[in-house]
Amino acid sequence: MDDLVAVGCMVAARERLAGVTRVTPLLPVSADAGWLGPGGPLLLKCENLQLGGAFKIRGAFNMAQRLDPAARRAGLLTYSSGNHGLAVARTARMLGVPAVIVMPTTAPAVKADGARALGAEVLFEGTTTLDRKARAEAEARQRGMAIVPPFDHEWIVEGQGTIGLEILEQCPDVRRVYVQMSGGGLISGVAAAIKRGRPDVEIVGVEPVYAARMTASLAAGKPVTVDLRPGGLADGLFAVRPGDITFRHVRAFVDRVVRMGDEAIAEAVRWLFHECRLVAEPSGAITLAAAAEARHRGEGVRGPEVALISGGNVEPELFGRLISGARG
Length: 328
Description:
- It is a single chain.
- This protein is of the alpha/beta class.
- It has two domains: 7-55 and 153-324, 3-Layer(aba) Sandwich (Rossmann fold); 57-147, Rossmann fold (3-Layer(aba) Sandwich).
- Helices cover 46% and strands 14% of the residues.
- The protein is built from 13 helices and ten strands.
- It has helices at residues 7-17, 57-66, 69-73, 83-95, 109-117, 129-143, 154-170, 185-197, 213-220, 244-253, 262-276, 282-296, 316-324, and strands at 26-29, 42-46, 76-79, 99-103, 121-124, 146-147, 176-180, 202-208, 256-260, 305-309.
- The strands form two sheets. It has a six-stranded mixed sheet, sandwiched between helices. A four-stranded parallel sheet has the order 5-4-3-6, with helices on both faces.
- Strand 7, helix 8 and strand 8 form a beta-alpha-beta unit.
């Protein structure tokens, strides 16, 4: 595992993030029978309460601080479906440098407008990560700016891994952790941080049924590109291919991967609001949907479980429909 991110690197990342990111709360929720299902203690790692409304600032700021100062001054450029773009825009504003964000044409307005409000230039290109990446690379060559990728870089994984360090400190007897998966940066860092310290903790990756790129890649034994089905609530989990670096971390540290559909994700968004008064975007709530499904199947564990709520940047109109139970 010499090519995988070490705990010491994540500890150093936490020092870089001190005073910038929040140590988000680990919130215990009711384990009574009902939608959530019976079982042991369940806790929510609330990254929807993170600076900027999502976990992404951890990786973005850590990487920006790791860049050569001259490269950093030239500005930060990224390709993102939303939350990573917001994080790079916020990072650039804090550091006083320019930012350019390449978003998909389908990006939620709340995320595009948020990046602009932070002073970033927003460009739109295609609907997949590969479309955005190609445009970002072309723009970086023209402008001489540094690319801060959304997931497939050791420095990004280091930053996201600080969440895993916090979980172990906040809940030393944790037994299972549910983490959402898209390109794999988040779960790579969290899983590496937890497994290197507590190999007995089960790490469960969760992805949408319509973007099951990690399931397909693990079956193939290498990263593969999947066709993305149109639609789907979890817009933050729309990468069509895992990264090379992140795939190696997932294969080394993740115990299993499950897939969730939109109905279960919508139920999780509703439950989080009505029972916990938490605003979570569908991508952020998918882990709670997986935990509830496991409990109803009798697949709980003896000891605390943690579901990572990765973000809360959701379109107000969509959120209103979800929490009211409206369809369409």
